[in-house]
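Follow-up to my earlier ticket, as requested here are the two runs.
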Amino acid sequence: MSASENKVILGRLGAVYGIKGWLKVQAYTDYAENIFDYGAWLIGREQSWQEANIVEWRRHNKGLIVKLADVDVREKAQLLTGMEIAVLESQLPELADDEYYWRDLVGMAVVNTKGYNMGAVKSLMETGSNDVLVVKANANDAFGKSERLIPFIESQMVQSVDKANRVITVDWEADF
């Protein structure tokens, strides 16, 4: 695993479960179990990362628990609580041209169909029915907006996503 390659955070190790080194897992993936599809994880904080091999995992109540290699007692597991779970960017599956990882949309410029620059994508949020672009407006926004929430509904609100130029074109009024 290349140290210079970008890491993608997929979750976090939670509290210790039991006395044999099991840990609870908080997954950030669409389907929680998908966090186990990547083989070895990188676990750590900030600039300190180590490889962790999954020995076993299972559902427990409404959550997930994991047993990592060389973590066989509660005390060792306690040292890992709160650590982030990551994989290398190259481990992520390739997406079709019309699919996007949220992290790829963040920072893209948002322009409406009339050519008005609405700002840049600050983040996205999930609402249940559809994802929503959280767009931080430009400092000199003509309509005094600081932020806009635009539903990410392709062919309706979102007209196009230009990955190469990092621009999202939306059918959305600038004063809304």
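Run two:
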Amino acid sequence: MAQEEARTAVAEAYRAHYRRLVAAVYAATGDFAGAQDAVQEAYAAAMDRPARFAALEDPQAWLRVVALNAARQRWRRRQVFDRLVRLGRVPKDPEPAPPLTGDRIDLMRALQSLPRPTREAIVLHHLFDLTVEQVADELGAPVGTIKARLTRGRARLADVLQPDPAHR
């Protein structure tokens, strides 16, 4: 089977089975976001080797097993973390995540509209307070490239986040 046909098979399986798999994993775990993540991990594994996935006798069963295994692995990690917190060996996160306000949602949408390399540079520089040189080092890109990404990213964010004059 050709690579493109195999990828199409994974995409078709996604359309056909995604919701049902999420519902099944959610029912098993009680964690909707975790169920979505586990099912996405299963499809990512299928896309990693699409020809192998397309050759399976029962792709839905394979996806179900991989998704449930991913959910179990998440549960085990969470149990270990919770135990380490109870024992005082790992500090609990001192600051809860900020609440999702309209402005934060708008910012997240605006960031998602940027190309991945630009978004990564913006996030590392402005949200993690890294210097341009540190961002360049972390991303493995020249300093000039990072400066250009930051300039383009800020300009795009300003356009996207510009309040609509009709709402003034």
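The only thing I checked on run two: Residues 3-86 form one domain. Let me know what else you need.
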